Amino acid sequence: MTDDVRQSPLAPARLVVLVSGEGSNMRALAGAAADPGFGAQIVAVGADRPCAGIDWAAGRGTPVFVHPLAPAAGAPSDRKAVRAQWDRELAERVAAFDPDLVVCAGFLKLLGPAFLGRFGGRILNTHNSLLPAFPGTHAPADALAAGVRITGATVFLVDSGTDTGAITAQVAVPVADEDTVGSLLERIKAAERAQLVDIVGRMARGGWTLRGRRVVVGDRGRVS
């Protein structure tokens, strides 16, 4: 199969970041992007609801938008149609900023076919386990229940599955005997933020190639 090659432009890579809450990962990316050598800039921050992350980005002069999903109502076919329209409209709103990468930074809505078709191969998301172990919304609790000694965080390219996309980076986090779900989650979040900043910067500076399930990240550097 032909390699799916994604290469960064000479100008800083354009990031659209999607959030739903405080936006701690987005803030970490913004801090890194303040350094011209990082190779990327946040051109917009979007959310599915009003939130602290949007307020923070707007306060820094970053373009923002909120695109809520209407509450589920009516027959299943009606709800499906509403969701599909929301997905198409979200894709249009993001496309208006011409992103090289879309980063889901705590974004709590699943992306649908229209969005994936528009930006497939360049949507990053994070997960608080070492995928494919413990997918879903309760990964730290699942790790503790399973008695594993190592868990961690994963950055991956989003596909149509749930936490099934090609993995771009992983970092291990040891599980301590005294850990609770909360204490483990906080250590994973800290590792996750550092890893996300690192991999976004490397992809922005060096480009990336998707070869089946393997993501090969270059480090060609940038011409200023």
From TrEMBL:
Coiled coil: none annotated. One of its GO terms (molecular function) is phosphoribosylglycinamide formyltransferase activity. Residues 14-199 form the Formyl transferase N-terminal domain. Pfam families: Formyl_trans_N (PF00551). It comes from the Bacteria. The active site is at 127 (proton donor). N(1)-(5-phospho-beta-D-ribosyl)glycinamide binds at residues 23-25. Pathway: Purine metabolism; IMP biosynthesis via de novo pathway; N(2)-formyl-N(1)-(5-phospho-D-ribosyl)glycinamide from N(1)-(5-phospho-D-ribosyl)glycinamide (10-formyl THF route): step 1/1. Its EC number is 2.1.2.2. InterPro entries: Formyl_transf_N, Formyl_transf_N_sf, GART. The keyword Lipoprotein does not apply. (6R)-10-formyltetrahydrofolate binds at residues 83, 108-111, 125. Gene3D superfamilies: Formyl transferase, N-terminal domain. The record marks 163 as: Raises pKa of active site His. Catalyzes the transfer of a formyl group from 10-formyltetrahydrofolate to 5-phospho-ribosyl-glycinamide (GAR), producing 5-phospho-ribosyl-N-formylglycinamide (FGAR) and tetrahydrofolate. This is Phosphoribosylglycinamide formyltransferase. It comes from Schaalia naturae.
